[in-house]
Write a structure and sequence with these properties.
The protein is 32% helix and 30% strand. It is of the alpha+beta class. Helix 1 crosses helix 9 (287-299), helix 2 packs antiparallel against helix 3 (96-103) and helix 3 crosses helix 4.
Length: 300
């Protein structure tokens, strides 16, 4: 039994698993229940709770309504609750800052700039706060000249392949750029990888395993977009890339998505709350168990 001492009293370490207040897809339910089961197997009690319970509030002080818990596995992207929970002294897995860097794709690329990690040429989308504004032709010229076609356009917030588009010509580029004009987005050079990419799980700064994802006739290979997985043996270069991403972003747990193009490995995205159901099935690796053991080591 994991425990800690407080004023001479031995108290069992207790965890909270927080999930989104509204979204309740089977893949999320599986994730929360698997983590809870593995924490329980190590002697750590854990409760699952929706974010709508208001786990922390503020009146100038951070007020913790979850004071019975020692740590939190935060499976949401609500930046306000995560920040307040940390203000209350709760250890989050992942930490607030790491979740925020991964939640915004452009922030991820900025954080990983100048640290020796290669990713496709990326242009930040120009943000617009003017109703009825149109994307300028000069902006489209700049995108074409720098990236060529196809162009990948991504909303900065989105998961499981949502908000990702491919433009094969000027007309499609204009339409997607106009669609995303009012939200944070980016433009990226297309990397030909045959509709395949790699999902690497990193826990506690070490690569746990790798799965190749193959798209179902789509340029995106996301499992949530219909892709399927198979085992892939990670080499030293891939391991180094993924572990560096986790280290720079400060992640306890993450899924690193890597493209394999003609120039070798190129980072696609880093997911702080990567789903592991398909990964466990394909690789036979107990991801939830390894995550629980990492949490136990940290909490000791």
């Amino acid at each position: 039994m994991t425990n800690h001492t407080c004023a001479g009293i031995i108290k069992a370490v207790k965890g909270l698993i927080i999930k989104n207040a509204y979204w309740d897809a089977p893949v999320l339910t599986h994730q929360t229940e698997r983590i809870k089961a593995e924490l329980n197997a190590l002697g750590m009690d854990a409760d699952i709770m929706r974010n709508g319970c208001f786990p922390a509030v503020t009146d100038g002080r951070a007020i913790n309504s979850c004071e019975d818990y020692d740590f939190c596995v935060y499976l949401d992207k609500d930046k306000y609750a995560s920040a307040l929970l940390e203000k209350c002294g709760l250890r989050l897995f992942n930490r607030h800052s790491a979740i925020q860097l991964c939640d915004d794709k452009m922030q991820t690329y900025v954080a990983l700039t100048n640290v020796g990690i290669r990713f496709p040429l990326t242009l930040p989308g120009t943000l617009c706060y003017t109703a009825g504004a149109r994307v300028s032709e000069s902006t489209l010229d700049g995108i074409e000249n720098l990236l060529g076609y196809p162009v990948i356009i991504k909303a900065c917030y989105g998961s499981r392949g949502s908000g990702v588009y491919k433009a094969d010509d000027r007309d499609k580029l204009r339409k997607v750029a106009q669609k995303l004009i009012g939200v944070p987005h980016l433009f990226q050079k297309y990397v030909e990888c045959g509709g395949k990419d790699l999902r690497v799980i990193v826990i506690g700064g070490k690569v746990l395993g790798c799965m190749e994802r193959v798209g179902n006739g789509d340029f995106r290979a996301n499992i949530g977009a219909g892709g399927s997985g198979r085992v892939y043996k990670a080499d030293k270069e891939l391991i180094t890339l993924c572990e560096k991403c986790a280290d720079v972003l400060g992640l306890d747990y993450c899924g690193v998505d890597v493209l394999v193009g003609e120039n070798g490995y190129e980072l696609c995205e880093v997911n702080s709350n990567a789903f592991f159901e398909e990964f466990e099935r394909v690789t036979g690796i107990n991801v939830a168990g390894e995550y629980a053991r990492h949490i136990m080591r940290v909490m000791k």
